[in-house]
Amino acid sequence: MALITKKIIIISPHFPPVNAPDMHRIRQSLPYLQEFGWSPTVFAVDPEYVETSQDNLLLESLPPQTEIHRVKALSTSLTRIFGLGNLGIRSYVSLKNAVDRYLSENKVDLIYFSTTVFVSVALGPHWQRKFGIPFVIDLQDPWRNDFHLTMPPRERPKKFWFDYRLNKFLEARSIPKCSGIIAVSSSYIELIKERYPMLAHHPCLTLPFGVLPHDFQIAGDLPGLRRNHDMIDVVYIGRGGSDMSLAVGALFDAFKRGLSRNPELFARVHFTFIGTSYAAKGKGIKTIEPLAKQMKIESSVTEQTDRLPYFHALKRLQEADILFMPGSTDRSYTASKLYPYIMAQKAILAVFNDASSVVDTLRSVGGGEVVTFRADDNADTLGIRLYPVLTALLEKLPFQPATNWKEFNTFTAREMTRKQCEFFSVVLSSS
Question: Where does the pLDDT of residue 348 fall: very low under 50, low under 70, confident under 90, or very high at 90 and above?
Fold first, then answer.
């Protein structure tokens, strides 16, 4: 019996060759959607209008038959005069008009928002009202993030006052009208249901980010890094920020203990932090090196705020000796980089909130050491617990982790896409 294909529109303003974290869910799903009965059409913003680095190799991972519509956006040379750079605001009218035209001429079963450009998600109720099409929201990050309200004003993100109020307003107008929610963390779903009780029985799915094995084949063909193999290369690729200062500070505390107790081993260690800022190239503010300087270990730490092209980042993971994963003090934080880290088949050292889903996943799949913290921990107490774990890891090098690949297969892109598609069908049945 032939599989009945349903039509889905995917809204992903960031899309290859744009090198942004929030487009990977879609990029990794596209090779498998047809297999599970869904025909996708992607609407994205033309890369010309996106202030994020690009990686043309990302285009090679897309199925050649993918239908992609690129929309324009207001230029930042104009909007920056008014202090606005938000891609969702700049592309709102163009995206609305382009999808309006498409829906006027084509039958579509479902609209799927998979993006952290949340202003674009606010178009869901418009298309639902005008065309009667249900929509699903993928919460890769919290939309309205109350976590920063607990922080001193000086530590809050730039333009927090404006962004928070805009997100609070748009979330309240959009999420209660959606037909289903996918989230990378179950805590995001719990928070949304607490905030909007009318969603208590709505279809919801917790779905972490998967990994596309073919990505590592592409990365493996890239030229390698010239490095000093007498040094121990500890690498982290991902954002920084004050909410990660506890985990990073504990690592540095453990390292300082090692320098005084076992200088021959620990003097060979160098920490490299890459892509720690979401800011445009050359405009990022360092958050790791100042902490290292404060602890007087700056000669052993390098921070690069600019992001690497995606496949070069995977190559860098493959070349490291140890991969470091710092967790946030925000209990709901989950790391999208977890599965690529495991796939790189390197020793992993993770320092995470004990409530994070990363802890259980890494322990079940294997491939790394996890040290957990709670709200009452500080860098010193955590560093004391971390020191013997870090020492044991350094003394075992080089080695390949004993990863449970059977367990890991449940986190591949194909399996994640299958779960997505099953959920889409549930949403259609419910709506």
Answer: very high
Q: pLDDT confidence of 240, banded at 50, 70, 90?
A: very high
Give the per-residue pLDDT at 3. 66
Determine the Cα–Cα distance for residues 113 and 224; give it in Å rounded to an integer.
36
Phi then psi for residue 57, to 5 deg, are: -65, -25
Give me the architecture of the 213-408 domain, per CATH.
3-Layer(aba) Sandwich (3.40)
Tokens of 286: 């360092």
Between 271 and 79, whose confidence is greater?
271
- Which residue do the tokens 């709670």 mark? 374
Residue 110 · residue 6 · CB < 8 Å: yes
Mean pLDDT of 73-99: 91
Domain range list for the chain: 6-210+412-430, 213-408
**What's the rounded Cα separation, in Å, for the pair 232 and 269?**
5
pLDDT band of residue 378 (cuts 50, 70, 90) is: very high
Q: What average pLDDT score do residues 223-246 get?
A: 88
- DSSP secondary structure of 212-262: -HHHHHHHHTSPPPP--TTSEEEEEES---GGGHHHHHHHHHHHHHHHHH-
Residue 422 pLDDT > 60: yes
What pLDDT score was predicted for residue 2?
Answer: 47
* Beta carbons of 342 and 403 less than 8 angstroms apart: yes
Say if residue 298 is exposed, middle or buried (CB neighbours under 10 Å; 0-12, 13-18, 19+): middle
CA torsion through residues 191, 355, 22, 183, sign: negative
In whole angstroms, what is the distance from residue 56 CA to residue 102 CA? 27
- Neighbour-count burial for 204-235, b at 16+ CB within 10 Å, e otherwise: bbbbbbbbbeebbebbeeeeeeeeeeeebbbb
DSSP class of 345: T
Closest to 39 (Cα-Cα) out of 67, 58, 62, 70: 67
User: pLDDT-based confidence at 147, cuts 50/70/90?
Assistant: confident
**SS3 sequence of 65-98:** CCEEEEECCCCHHHHHHHCCCCHHHHHHHHHHHH
Task: Give the SS3 label for residue 11.
Answer: strand
Measure Cα distances from 264 to 257, 260, 386, 390 in Å.
13, 10, 19, 15
What is the spatial distance between Cα 270 and Cα 62, in angstroms, rounded to a whole number? 36
CATH of span 6-210+412-430? 3.40.50.2000
